[in-house]
Every structure is written in structure tokens, then in C-alpha cells.
Specification:
The complex is a heterodimer of chains A (120) and B (617). Chain A has two domains: 31 residues; 62 residues. Helices cover 65% and strands 0% of the residues of chain A. Chain A is mostly helical and 120 residues long. Chain B is α/β, with parallel strands linked by helices. Chain B starts with a strand and ends in a 6-residue tail after the last helix. Chain B has a five-stranded parallel β-sheet with strand order 3-2-4-5-6, with helices on both faces. Chain B has a four-stranded antiparallel β-sheet with strand order 11-20-19-18. Chain B has a three-stranded antiparallel β-sheet with strand order 9-8-10, with no helix packed on it. The longest helix of chain B is centred in the C-terminal third of the chain and has 30 residues. In chain B, helix 6 packs across helix 11, helix 16 runs antiparallel to helix 17 and helix 17 runs antiparallel to helix 19. Chain B contains 19 helices and 20 strands. Classes of the chains: A mainly alpha (120), B alpha/beta (617). Chains A and B meet through loops of A and strand 1, helix 1, helix 4, strand 10 and helix 12 of B.
Chain lengths: 120, 617
């Protein structure tokens, strides 16, 4: 199987995954509107409403910096050798780097949504 | 259906509704074991019991519910997804819940008819337009606003903090009436509150629990009793007040003696005994609470008192208590205080002390006592900054107590306890302080035993517990993954059985039977016998035999019910189903031949349990 065929397979899997998720959302939507009622968004603790979220105590947050480090630093480390062989590999090289950057970009978007780029 | 899902019926929704009606999942209040004790077979009627209301489509109420459980049932109903329905079995009053969709008697045939009716209702009315919201006081959380820096500021409206001018942040509180006035279990000396300092002037240096009015010798070790210091005595009351004083915010200095486990410092008791976790003997310790200055002498007194009898290594711990009792937390580093202590007390065995002091710090589980002081206004530790070094003594944490250290070393740093429990409310909102900033998020938080800054989380739990048909309402204080404190919320659950019984004599059997809903017949029989002997009548022989039979069936069925509960708990579905089926069969076997026929099945179950790994003898 050539690299381009592999990428065709990957594209098919992405489309199938997005399609499945979209179908599930569509079914959920077509089964009526959800109501935001009091008590529904609180975890069940045996019949009382816990006033605080239960996961509040876990503070493992270094991953935010790890994402940014990958997106801005490691990315460069891979792009230099990639640029050297780009002419040789052509479209495959472009797709390779495109997928890699797309994954890193998701991390970037997440960090952005968490306020990682706000000047402090 | 009152709990219908919003939306007009179309072909897809009708299909979904029919599918839902075929597979009804039930959340049972107070619990499925009570249904079985009443001889109800939910599975045979077509209801599948589930463990959480999130997975349930039907709320099943068994029997009359006390007010606390009715409120819990309302919360559980609010947490169910729509479409949802209520099936009330023998429950005339359902409290804050909407009127039941189907009501039936506590009998198997009535249950089956009720479930059939429920299926029709769900298939026809699972979707409808203009459904009514379920919004009662029992399930509403009210939002109040507090200052991230000054948790004592609580307002009903958003705005600015009057002290520092910061924006107030929301803090949620559950709007239920008996709610948060929990009484903590470890309220050691509640009864000593305000009882005079005059009593018990002499104590044994080795056994501080020995307190006498007159000099003499210790009944345990025979040593001469030594006078107790008055200041420590007076301070005792201060500390007792502090233990209660979290909310009152009163802080005075002093020491009081509590007992704690050398391995589990979170275990604090008023008297000697053994640790509920590891079974070791509890050791006395002075619980320090300090106004600057004044308490120093008191805690030194405690130190002296113990100097008489203890080995040098113990001093490290005790010395710490003394220092802690000194209460001068203001910004001074722990090391500096160590030095000060050394200068002040040249007679101490320093080598052992130093080591013990460094290694022996533990988190004191009873933060509340310290916290009271913090609220009391003696707080001099800088707490505003983001610098974690602002907390003195933090470098010492993270080690477990060494057995034989005399127990009860306390970390000055942990004195932040109560302040931080207040701080906890706003720590979620502090996250805006910086991108994933650990410093911002863990600022001012207490440190747990492993040295990590932790949230102290208040987690209410109950009243619905498997196997407790009367309910139990407890409030947990979680220190990370560890339960640091357990408090019972009084009055929220329970059936109020202690109340006087005003009814006519004929209602006595029912009243007594409700004492133990899981095995009611024994009490019912007791009441019958009492009434008969009072009236001077006697049952005829057949009735008497039938009663004995019913009593014996209940005796056999009750452990089968517990076994089914164990099976549920272990996730051993086969055991749970077999035991439940046998329990119902035993309860229904009214005639002797039917009961005899069950013997092989019960023997097979016993054999099976004995072959099960971890359950075998």
C-alpha cells in the first residue's frame, strides 16, 4: 500500500468518526430538547446535592505547558529535517507534516481556550 | 406523565418511547432490599433496579417515607433524566415530589399491575409539549457571593469586597433547611465546656487521664500525682471552645488534652482507647491553640508535666506542641522557631529533639481547632501572597508520624486549616488568576500528609445507603482522597421512632414493626403477644403455629437479603440474584412442604458461596 493510499484510509476513518459523532448528536437532538433543571448537573451522592464539584482536588496542570512546548518547540525540531527532504518526497511529505501540525494545532486551540495566551 | 421529555410526538419519538417502556429501569427509595423484605420481586414485575438515578427511568418509592428520605427522593428524582416517572408503592405521602404517576399497594400483584400501567403511560406520554419543570426548594442551590481573599465576607449580591475591593465570586450553597449545621463526631470535650477549673487539680505525669482532686499516687503506675497547672486548665476551656469555634470565630489560647493515634493523626478522641483504623492504643497529646504570648506558658507547662516521665525522644514531639501552643505564627520560619526554642530551653535533649522535630511533623487532622483561632483574629501569617513560602513550617510536612513519638505533633503551617476551608470555596474561581498556575490555585491551601497542597472538600453523603432503610445523613471532609472528618447531619433522616406513640393499642404492632422495616415480623409478633397477655387472651393453636412459621421464615430470609446486598456490592450478580430469589421464595413459602422444597437450593447457594474466592472460609 502506497503512502497515498494509507492517507486515503486515514481520511476515510476521520470521515467515519465525524459521521458517527454527528449521527449520535442528531439522534439526541431529534429526541427532544433537554431541560436545564436544578440538581441535574450535580453528582449523585445518595440524595443530597453536593455544593462543590468532586474533582476539585486534582491539580495536575503541567500538561498545559507540555502542549505549548510541543506546539512551539518540538514542532520546529521536526520541521528542519522535513524541509530538507520535502523536494524529494513531494505530496506525501506535505500530508505527513499536515497531519502532525493538525494534531499539534488541536493542543494549541485547547491552550488558547484555557487562556494560555493571555498576557499576565 | 409529569416527567415527560419536551417535544411533540413523531414516529422516531414514539419508537423510542415504546423501547423505553419495554425496558424500565428503577431507582428504588429507600432501597431494593426493602422491596424484597416486603416480598416484592421488582425484576419479576419487569423493573430493572439500577444503582444511580442517572440510569433510571422510574423512581420507585417503597412504603411511607420519613421527611428526610422524601427530600432525598426528590433530589434523586431531579437528577434523573427525562422521561422519568414515579411509582409509589404503599406511599400515601411523597413530600416535595410531584404526584406519583402510578400508585399501588405493597403487594406483588399490585406491583405487576402498576408496572403494566406504567408501561402504557411511558409508551404513550414519554414525549409531550409544555412539560412542567421540577423546581422545588429541596433541589435548588442558592448562590451566594464571597471574597476570594476574605472568606468571612458573604453577600447575597455580587459586588466588591469591603476589605480589599476585589470582585466577589459566587459560592454555591444547597438550600435545604437542616443542612449544614452538622455536629462533628470528634467533639471531644463538649461536656467539659465551662465546667470549672477547680476540679481535678492533680494528675499523673505518665497517665494524664488520671485526674484527682487531692494529691496521691497514680492507680496505674503508682507514681506520685503532680499538680496540674492552672493556666493549662484555663486554657483547656479556650481550646474546647475553639474546637467548636470554627463558626463562632472565637479564639483563645491554651492547650487541651485529646487522644490520637500515633499512626493516624486524623483520629482524635476525647478519651483514651484504641484507634479505629489500626487498633493501636491512642496516645495523649495537647491540642494547642494560641493567642500570642499568653498560651506559651500553658504549653510549656504541658511540656514540663511530661518531662517528668517520658524518654528524651518523645520530647521532640512534645516540644513541638509547646511551640505550636505558643501560637506566635507570625511569619517566623519554622527553623527560626526551633532555634528560639533551643535558646529558651537549654535543658532539652537536643540531638534527639532535632531529629524528631524534623521527621515527626504530621498533618493534624483536627484543623478546625486551629482554624477557630485563625478566625479569632490572632492570625498573623501572611496569607495574601502567591508565594508558598509564606506558610511557615511547610517544609516539614509530608512525613508520617513515627510510632512512639508520643503522638500528636502539630504543624504550625496547618493552622491555616479553617481559613483554607473557607478559601476552598473560591479556589475554583482563582483559576482565572493565571494559566494553569499551580501557585494561584493552591495558594493558602492546607498541605496533606504527602506534602501536596490539597483541597479540603466538603462532601455531603447520604441519606440513601444500601441496607439502611431509615437513611443516614453524613458530611465528609475530604483531604485529598482521605476522609479527614465525618460528621452526622442531625435530624435530616430517620423515622423519628423515638417520638411518643399516642395511638390506640391496636396500632402498636404496626408501630413496632416499623422499627425494623427489613425484618418487621419479629416486632409485630412481640406487640401481638404483649397485647394478648394484657388482654388475657391467647391465640388458637393454628394461629400460634402460623406465627412461629412466619417468624422462622423471616429469620431465614433476612440473612439471604443481606447476602444479596453483598452480592450487589461485590458486583457478583449471580450471587445477588440467587440470594434475592431465595429470600423471596422463603418469605412466600407459607406451607411446610414448600419451605422444605427450598432446602436443596439453599444448600447449593451455601456451597457456591463457600467455593467463591475471597468469600470462602
Amino acid at each position: 500500500m502506497t503512502p497515498l493510499q494509507q492517507y486515503g484510509l486515514l481520511l476515510g476513518m476521520v470521515v467515519a468518526t465525524v459521521g458517527l459523532v454527528a449521527t449520535v448528536y442528531l439522534i439526541a437532538r431529534s429526541l427532544g430538547k433537554t431541560r436545564g433543571e436544578p440538581g441535574k448537573d450535580v453528582p449523585f451522592t445518595g440524595g443530597t446535592l453536593s455544593p462543590k464539584p468532586a474533582w476539585v482536588r486534582y491539580h495536575i496542570h503541567y500538561y498545559g505547558f507540555a502542549l505549548l512546548f510541543l506546539a512551539f518547540d518540538m514542532e520546529m525540531a521536526f520541521m528542519y529535517p522535513w524541509a530538507v527532504v520535502y523536494q524529494e518526497l513531494g505530496l506525501t511529505a506535505l500530508l505527513d507534516m499536515g497531519v502532525f501540525l493538525a494534531i499539534l494545532f488541536l493542543g494549541l486551540l485547547y491552550g488558547w481556550s484555557q487562556g494560555a495566551f493571555k498576557w499576565q | 406523565m409529569t416527567g415527560a421529555r419536551e417535544g411533540a410526538a413523531n414516529w422516531l419519538r414514539r419508537l423510542a418511547a415504546r423501547a423505553l417502556a419495554r425496558d424500565l429501569t428503577a431507582f428504588v427509595v429507600p432501597g431494593p432490599e426493602l422491596a424484597r423484605a416486603h416480598g416484592l420481586d421488582l425484576a419479576a414485575a419487569g423493573l430493572r433496579p439500577v444503582a444511580t438515578p442517572r440510569h433510571a427511568g422510574v423512581l420507585v418509592l417503597i412504603g411511607e417515607l420519613p421527611a428526610g428520605l422524601a427530600r432525598a427522593a426528590a433530589v434523586a428524582y431531579a437528577q434523573m433524566g427525562r422521561p422519568r416517572a414515579i411509582l409509589a408503592l404503599g406511599a400515601p405521602e411523597v413530600g416535595p415530589l410531584p404526584a406519583p404517576d402510578v400508585a399501588a399497594a405493597l403487594r406483588q400483584d399490585a406491583l405487576a399491575a402498576g408496572v403494566a400501567e406504567l408501561r402504557r403511560l411511558v409508551a404513550a406520554g414519554a414525549f409531550s409539549l409544555g412539560t412542567a419543570p421540577f423546581d422545588v426548594a429541596a433541589v435548588r442551590t442558592e448562590t451566594r457571593y464571597t471574597c476570594p481573599m476574605h472568606p468571612e465576607i458573604v453577600r447575597d449580591q455580587p459586588g466588591k469586597c469591603p476589605i480589599c475591593g476585589m470582585d466577589l465570586v459566587p459560592q454555591q450553597e444547597v438550600g435545604r433547611s437542616p443542612g449544614h449545621d452538622a455536629t462533628t463526631v470528634d467533639h471531644g470535650g463538649a461536656s467539659e465546656h465551662g465546667s470549672g477549673a477547680a476540679t481535678g487539680a492533680y494528675t499523673c505525669p505518665m497517665h494524664p487521664e488520671i485526674v484527682r482532686d487531692a494529691p496521691g499516687s497514680c492507680p496505674i503506675c503508682g507514681m506520685d500525682l503532680v499538680p496540674r497547672e492552672e493556666e493549662g486548665e484555663a486554657a483547656d476551656r479556650g481550646a474546647t471552645a475553639l474546637q467548636h469555634g470554627l463558626a463562632h470565630g472565637e479564639g483563645r489560647g491554651g492547650t487541651r488534652r485529646t487522644y490520637t493515634c500515633p499512626m493516624h493523626p486524623e483520629v482524635v478522641r476525647a478519651g483514651p482507647g484504641s484507634c479505629p483504623i489500626c487498633g493501636m492504643d491512642l496516645l495523649p497529646r495537647a491540642e494547642a491553640a494560641g493567642g500570642p504570648g499568653s498560651a506559651m506558658d500553658g504549653s510549656h507547662a504541658a511540656h514540663r508535666r511530661r518531662d517528668a516521665g517520658r524518654a528524651g525522644a518523645v520530647h521532640g514531639g512534645q516540644g513541638h506542641q509547646g511551640r505550636d501552643g505558643g501560637g506566635d505564627h507570625g511569619g517566623m520560619g519554622h527553623g527560626a522557631r526551633d532555634t528560639a526554642q533551643r535558646l529558651r530551653r537549654p535543658d532539652r535533649v537536643e540531638g534527639a529533639d532535632g531529629v524528631a522535630a524534623a521527621a515527626g511533623h504530621t498533618v493534624d487532622a483536627d484543623h478546625a481547632a486551629h482554624g477557630g483561632r485563625e478566625y479569632g483574629g490572632h492570625h498573623t501569617v501572611p496569607r495574601g501572597g502567591t508565594d508558598q513560602n509564606a506558610m511557615p513550617g511547610m517544609a516539614h510536612e509530608g512525613r508520617t508520624a513515627m510510632p512512639g513519638m508520643g503522638g500528636g505533633q502539630e504543624m504550625p503551617g496547618m493552622a491555616h486549616g479553617a481559613h483554607d476551608m473557607g478559601a476552598m470555596d473560591h479556589s475554583m474561581h482563582d483559576m482565572s488568576g493565571g494559566f494553569m498556575s499551580m501557585v494561584a490555585m493552591t495558594r493558602d491551601l492546607p498541605r496533606s500528609r504527602d506534602g501536596l497542597p490539597m483541597e479540603w472538600t466538603e462532601a455531603p453523603f447520604g441519606p440513601l445507603f444500601p441496607g439502611l432503610p431509615g437513611g443516614l445523613d453524613i458530611a465528609l471532609t475530604l483531604d485529598g482522597d482521605v476522609v479527614a472528618r465525618v460528621a452526622r447531619v442531625p435530624g435530616a433522616a430517620g423515622r423519628g421512632l423515638a417520638a411518643t406513640w399516642p395511638g390506640p393499642a391496636a396500632t402498636l404492632p404496626d408501630r413496632l414493626a416499623s422499627l425494623d422495616p427489613l425484618a418487621p415480623f419479629g416486632y409485630r409478633l412481640l406487640a401481638w403477644r404483649a397485647l394478648e397477655s394484657a388482654a388475657g387472651t391467647a391465640p388458637d393453636e393454628r394461629a400460634a403455629r402460623a406465627r412461629v412459621g412466619a417468624l422462622e421464615r423471616e429469620r431465614a430470609a433476612s440473612p439471604l437479603g443481606w447476602l444479596a446486598g453483598v452480592g450487589d456490592l461485590l458486583g457478583y450478580r449471580g450471587l445477588a440474584e440467587r440470594a434475592a430469589a431465595l429470600q423471596l421464595a422463603v418469605l412466600r413459602a407459607a406451607e411446610p412442604p414448600a419451605a422444605e422444597g427450598l432446602a436443596p437450593a439453599i444448600r447449593r447457594l451455601i456451597g457456591r458461596v463457600e467455593r467463591t474466592p475471597l468469600l470462602r472460609r
